């Protein structure tokens, strides 16, 4: 994807690199990341770990699973993340950082045009290494990229791009762009009130039905990522679409569950199957219309 001429000077970037430590959650000899809202976002193993260990680390699992999901947790005051080193490495630290900033700058321009004048608010992009701090609690590389609605931040350890390529077999710059664009999708859900509506509804439902709404949230964010790409077709290279679809497939709940536990548990999906994630990303790519991104109409709740 050709984004070299994108001006990143106006991107709101916070740099926490160099201020963290530790190694996150080591699992199976390596770091386990999810797809979707945190990419980022979906295996049962890490979800269970988040609920068991998360509170001890200051993490609200419901804020992290799936990326968007309303405001700050009840009783928790959104906390500002600590500032990074003086001057900050920020966008120019390395090629991955620069590309991430360029994707966000492009997405800001694209989505601002979809809102009434003065109604769009840009998210901030927070870089961290291994450990960081967000308005939703601790940030860990093991969680993968995620969106925190409490401070409207997209949190990213760019080492995830290597894992996306080497562990998940989803290489390419558009696969990386999809990561940022998906998290931007959660920001759009926050700005439009969709995230708050879903969170409120989930609190009234069973876990299984709540998961169905969470899946719809993730699929909509995938579709929004496709809308952004469709609005920037002139910047795409041959093979970019295939890279994005490959990434969506590799972070499908069924693919991740099969790899992690040797079986698939559909009722425990929180991000959507590989087929569904590909389908909704493709819908956004083909229509370029956010109004066509409504997976909630397909949700059938259990009685």
List the topology elements.
Blueprint (H helix, E strand, L loop, with lengths): L12 E3 L10 E2 L2 E2 L12 H10 L7 H4 L30 H18 L11 E4 L3 E4 L2 E4 L5 E3 L4 E4 L3 H7 L6 H20 L1 H9 L4 H24 L9 H11 L2 H9 L12 H14 L16
Parallel strand pairs: 1-4, 4-8
Antiparallel strand pairs: 2-3, 5-6, 7-8
Annotation keywords:
alpha/beta; two-stranded antiparallel ribbon; 10 helices
Helix content: 40-55%
What is the C-alpha radius of gyration, as a whole number of Å?
17 Å
Mean pLDDT: 81
Main sheet summary = 4 strands, mixed
Give the overall shape: globular
**Secondary-structure element order, N to C:** EEEHHHEEEEEHHHHHHH
Count the helices. How many?
10
Strand content: 5-15%
In terms of per-residue confidence, which ranges show pLDDT below 50 for 5 or more consecutive residues?
A: 20-57, 60-89
Structural category is alpha/beta
- Strand line-up across the major sheet: 1-4-8-7
Distance between the termini: 45 Å
- What is the number of E strands? 8
Protein model, in words:
This protein is of the alpha/beta class and 303 residues long. The chain contains ten helices and eight strands. Strand 5 (131-134) and strand 6 form a beta hairpin. Helix 5 packs across helix 8 (240-250), helix 6 packs antiparallel against helix 7 (207-230) and helix 7 (207-230) packs parallel to helix 10 (274-287).
């Amino acid at each position: 994807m050709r984004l070299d001429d994108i001006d990143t000077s106006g991107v709101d970037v916070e740099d926490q690199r160099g201020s963290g430590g530790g190694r996150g959650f080591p699992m199976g000899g390596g770091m386990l990341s999810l797809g979707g809202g945190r990419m980022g976002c979906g295996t049962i193993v890490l979800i269970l770990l988040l609920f068991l260990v998360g509170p001890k680390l200051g993490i609200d699992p419901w804020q992290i699973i799936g990326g968007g999901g309303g405001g700050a947790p009840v009783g928790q005051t959104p906390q500002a993340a600590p500032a990074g080193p003086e001057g900050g490495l920020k966008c120019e630290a390395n090629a991955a950082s620069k590309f991430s900033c360029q994707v966000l700058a492009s997405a800001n321009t694209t989505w601002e045009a979809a809102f009434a004048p003065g109604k769009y608010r840009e998210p901030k992009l927070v870089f961290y290494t291994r450990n960081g701090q967000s308005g939703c609690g601790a940030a860990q590389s093991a969680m993968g990229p995620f969106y925190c609605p409490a401070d409207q931040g997209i949190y990213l350890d760019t080492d995830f791009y290597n894992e996306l390529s080497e562990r998940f077999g989803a290489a390419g710059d558009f696969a990386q762009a999809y990561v940022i664009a998906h998290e931007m999708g959660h920001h759009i859900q926050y700005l439009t009130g969709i995230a708050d509506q879903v969170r409120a509804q989930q609190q009234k439902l069973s876990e299984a039905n709540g998961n169905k709404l969470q899946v719809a949230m993730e699929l909509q964010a995938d579709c929004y990522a496709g809308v952004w790409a469709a609005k920037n077709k002139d910047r795409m290279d041959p093979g970019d679409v295939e890279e994005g679809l490959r990434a969506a497939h590799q972070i499908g709940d069924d693919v991740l569950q099969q790899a992690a536990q040797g079986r698939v548990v559909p009722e425990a999906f929180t991000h959507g199957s590989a087929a569904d994630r590909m389908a909704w990303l493709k819908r956004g790519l083909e229509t370029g219309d956010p109004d066509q991104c409504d997976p909630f109409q397909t949700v059938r709740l259990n009685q």
